[in-house]
Amino acid sequence: MLRGPAQDQAAAATVIPNVMEGRMPASVLSAFFVFTFITAITPGPNNILALTTGSRAGVRGSIPVLAGICGGFLAVMAICGALSFSFSVLSASFLQVMRYVGSAYLLWLAWKTAMPKAGDSHGGHAGAGFLTGFVLQFVNVKIMVYGMTAYSAFILPYHDSVAALFAGMFFLTMMGSLGTVVWAVAGARLQGLFRRHARMTNWLLGAMLVGCAVSLLDQ
Length: 219
Known about the structure:
Blueprint lengths: L4 H8 L2 H9 L2 H16 L3 H43 L4 H23 L15 H8 L3 H15 L6 H28 L1 H6 L1 H21 L1
Helix pairs in contact: 1-8, 3-8, 4-6, 4-7, 4-8, 4-10, 5-10, 7-8
């Protein structure tokens, strides 16, 4: 049951401390942190795109696509939270459709990565900008499942307020964004190596995106 506005305002400042103080069992809390960390740091569409952009444009040149990823991620987490709060489960048929749409988009990104236009490798934008990162989130089934699982299995069973939804939305986005930034920095650090072996790197990163596309269909 929804709480009143006054209760939501009070909960907004205490929802995370309350979790830490024991409203969520320690075993569940530990599992929640492990789940979010592993999901954020392992290879996926966002991280591979960040690695690709970082390796070609450096950290500064990656900022537009990272901003797009973070903005889209936040929007998708808000949608997942609202759906979880209202319906508890996302339509299986919707997820199935999004798997195919997401796989097609990732295959397109894989082609763009493996076969960059002249100048993309050194032009600063690496073929990806804010819109590329933002749109990717809405066909990225990995983060949809991530958000729905986090809300339905970890957050809502223990916190049923609107404030909990917002706290979860920002925490999940923060974890996902940190993982993406780590991959972008890794790409920038290895930029020299990637440029010396540009063709091999492009094909390898493209193949990794194809792997992500295939994995979406297997979920």
